[in-house]
Specification:
About 70% of the residues lie in helices and about 0% in strands. It is built from 12 helices and no strands. Helix 4 packs across helix 5, helix 5 runs parallel beside helix 8 and helix 8 packs parallel to helix 10.
Length: about 240
């Protein structure tokens, strides 16, 4: 599924309507136009596959596993970065990355070829690391943090929007802890969140619709009856 869609993205524009001849059997990848254009489903991993395939000259099926392993490495480094959010806890960061690397579900995600989930969780960890990091005292020095958070947040929104709530809940919890400890309202962190959301909206533009529809569809499908004996990923 991912590789077929990536081949369409590599050779055609996002909005390009398939022809009847292609749908009749000339190019089966054109059927994914219905999934991403009228269906408004997330498409981030397919775009990355198409990009790597175009750069290397290798078909998407040939680059899929190297790409998902690369996303797994990004996930490990993002977890280490999240551990380092309060200082140079290098040993703790190394331990955290090592524990994640030997986690059975971490390896299972790559073996099951869940590329959107593997890359999406990497982006979630990175966004959470930026949201919970130590912040500068002045607003001007906060601008680089906002820019990077906006970029990572927008990527997460088109890659794996189902987990964005976890980043928001985490920063709210961190803000509450800071308020209890210091007895002052965490203005800088609130500003980072608000301006970051604005930056994500500016970068996504019309893809906000895809972000919202994917969340609604996935939540709706999650309440349907699933036959666990037929499911490849019933967790």
């Amino acid at each position: 599924n991912y590789c077929f869609a990536a081949e369409r993205f590599k050779d055609f524009g996002f909005w390009r309507v398939p022809t009847p001849e292609e749908l009749a059997g000339r190019d089966w990848s054109q059927y994914y136009w219905f999934m991403h254009v009228p269906g408004l489903m997330r498409f981030g991993s397919e775009h990355v596959l198409a990009w790597i395939s175009a750069l290397t000259g290798i078909k998407s099926l040939g680059v899929f596993m190297p790409v998902i392993i690369g996303f797994g490495l990004v996930q490990l480094f993002a977890a280490a970065g999240l551990t380092l959010h309060h200082g140079r806890w290098r040993r703790r960061a190394l331990l955290g990355a090592a524990l994640l690397a030997v986690s059975p579900l971490f390896m299972l995600g790559m073996l099951y070829q869940l590329i959107a989930q593997v890359g999406g969780l990497a982006l979630l960890l990175a966004a959470t690391a930026f949201l919970t990091a130590r912040l500068p005292a002045t607003r001007r020095r906060l601008i680089p943090h906002i820019a990077v958070l906006s970029l990572v947040g927008a990527a997460l929104a088109i890659f794996y929007p189902e987990v964005t709530a976890f980043a928001v809940l985490t920063v709210l919890l961190v803000g509450a802890v800071e308020f209890i400890r210091h007895r002052t309202f965490p203005t800088a962190r609130l500003g980072l969140v608000m301006y970051g959301i604005v930056g994500v909206i500016v970068l996504l533009r019309h893809n906000i619709l895809s972000y919202l529809f994917t969340i609604l569809y996935q939540f709706g499908s999650g309440f349907r009856t699933v036959d666990l004996s037929l499911s490849l990923f019933p967790y």
